[in-house]
Amino acid sequence: MNIISGIAVHIIFLVSIFEIYFKSPIVDGIDSEKNNIKPPAKRLILFVADGLRADMFFELENGTSKSPFLRHIIDTKSVWGLSHARIPTESRPGNVALIAGFYEDPSAVFKGWKENPVEFDSLFNRSTATYSWGSPDILPMFQKGAVEGRIYTDSYSSDLQDFSGRNSSATQLNDWVFDKFEKFLREASVDSEKRQQLNRNGVVFFLHLLGTDVAGHANKPHSREYKDTIVNVDAGIESVVKQVEHFFSDKDTAYIFTSDHGMTDWGSHGAGLPSETETPIVAWGAGVSSHQNVNIRQADIVPLMAVLLGLSIPVHSLGTLPVSFLDASNETIAECLLLNSRQLVAQLKRHRESVTCHLLPLFHAPFPHLHQATQDQLTASVEDLIAQKRYQDAMEQTINLISLAMMGIKYYQTYFQNFLLAAITLSYIAWIMWITSLILPNTQLSINSYYKEKTHNSGVMNIVINTVFTLLLLLAVCLLFVQKFGVQYYVFSCLPVWLWWKVSLNYKVFLPVVTYISGNFIRTLCWLAVYLGGLELLVLTFFYRSALSILLLGFGLWPFIDKKLRFNSIVHRTFWSATCLCLAVFPLLPTIGAAEDITLVIISGCLWLMAGIFVTLTQARTNHGNDGLLSLFQLSLFPLTIWLTSSTADSFKARLGLPLLNQATSWVLLIVSLIIPLLSSRTVLTRLGSVSLGLSVPFLLLSVGHEAFFLLALTVNLFCWLTLEKSCLEANTVITSATYKNPGVKQKESSQTLNGDDFRRAFFFLCYIVLSFFGTGNIASVNSFNIDWVRCFLTVFSPFTMTALILLKTLIPFLLVGCAFQALSIVSKVEMKHQMYMFLVLSNVMGIQFLYAVTNEGSWLDIGTSISHYVIVQTMILFIVVLFWVASFCMSRSIPHPWSHRLNYVPRPTLESRPGFVIKDYVWSPFDKNHLE
User: 253: which strand partners?
Assistant: First the structure.
């Protein structure tokens, strides 16, 4: 197996859930249902206040509303309430749901919600004309694929999206939109042709107001600045309404005010907390009812707007018309519901055709509750009921038809779900077996067995295996070809056949295992239970971070249980347990972003400085003075980092934004701190210590609270781990050389033979990887965005730069763990590929569990969380491959400099596969006075 095939398999596993559970809701060729119902409104104005929480909008402050105009509308002539958004609570999917009526195609996540992965229909495309003003990240996406010249957009420069927290930075974005709208109407008032165009039926005005989102990120939703943007939005909407009523001089305008998503208390969004999913909605004007409090889905707003304007409902919409919003007769409401049902039935028909058009009868199981004939009968029945003026009965039957159509659409979207799930499961099991077959020949169990000898009938067995699997592969391909399946089905169907083929060809390596298990069944069962129990705790960690604390407490007991460590001093073992206990505290603390305390960051910086001084003085005698100046320079960065963090925080508190000097210094520190480790000695612990100090500087600059302590605690714990593993390696060398002696079988070097300790190290590494992710955060904190994390570097909205910086902060603990594991593999002389194989076995066992935990039902929180869990496990596996390479680069490469010849030692012959590393001056810990010569 090579690395390319391994990456390819895991990419297939990753994308499989989108085909299994979340097939795109969009299909081509849906017939549009024409709307012949008389529209109650000629035009509609849609206000979307980006990032506005429902509770912050509706709450009273000292008995007074922050939105007096909209509050008056609510009290006198509107339908109002909550509109529930769906995960991910981001601007693009939120606006797609509001304007197109469906929840974003899952493949859009791979494009950062920026581009249309496929063309989709929207209300704007159905309108006579749409005029929109607002964010450059939102407006253009509705133009792509729309009728030429139908959608007019005007966006401000992205440079105006300033998250520095200045008082005017947020409201000026809203003011820009309101000013542009006023200018537009003023120009139209003296342009007869434009005025005539605006007076047509079916015109939409879209005002996207980003100010609330910017204020929430920069100042948090409970801040005065955020509340001021709500006041600003209310005043702007009042001005727009007055201008519209004066310009058109009629009562034919409908208004809808809502938001795309909410925001957490700490100024982020993306996950499924109520503060993120609950947004306000206020509708009033032509055709809208009044004095009602409602709860609706975000996608339901689209059919409402279409009906108000007399437009066809967008063909991809999955919204259900909220009839409580309509001020209309029962006849009109019944006809509107019938229109909604026809649109959904047309969508169901196309989904059915796309699945069954080439399917063999043997594999066809139609949706049992709504056949083609049944839906035609139900539609005709509703029409008859309307003709008989039995409107209530017609509405009830139409609502039932809508419900069945929605169920049918879902049925055909997931028609091949069980088949694909079985195929991927078989692939998972085969993949684990194949990786295991690559590990077994390098274990002492296989080395000391005679099953490695080839038998005379091996060739016959291989011919049988090749013949059987070739026939299976041909059968699968023929069935797929005849039924004209897509390329993805060939991949998902043939993958398990190919993997099991590989496993079957390696059947002989499992024979020693079968023999061993038969003689050591209880022992094997106990060890299997231990590892599975540990993996279950890791799985539980994805739901409850506190499970990590249990694992870490178990780690703390390790040196007191393992007999190979009994000769270690009590100081070594106690210090390890203490560091595990410190790390166990972090999963019990709130996630990062929920609270901010710069004092903790400053204290952490001071501790890093003291730790660096201590390690530098301790290792001075082994560095021969060559790294002294470099170490002093590296330590000098910490006082500057502490000052930068404190100074920037004070500047933001004073609403002065980010000083230019602070910004420039932060970028210089970021670059310099990452380069310095590449100048240090390539002695293992010296380089690892330099990497740790180098990574801590950007981590401190990107920290806002207690997470600053996490990297320090993790670093100390990793160095202790290396100390204990050294003792295990020394003890294991003695044991293996004394125990395993099989005459006639050529022995490998004992230190390179895989044993139980190597599997334990792989499990520890997996735990450290999960700890790096969940130690201070969770799914929500990763999905969420907090401007405070990057405020030392920039404040003007720049999604790619901000994402890169936040990603760097997230990756730093991973990289530190990778470098420590790289150091351990160097000393143990175990090939990195074998370490990788063991990690893959453990992580894929977790992957199977999360595959079945993915859900497309229930709350949006449940759905989004289940996707995130599976994606994290799969990307973690792919990420580790890159992590090993980066860690190897950090630990082995050096930038040439004048004194480099004094820092680099010649590697030993036994480490030729790891160029650049030496063990000569390996100092394991401050407590260990013995060098590994």
Answer: 43
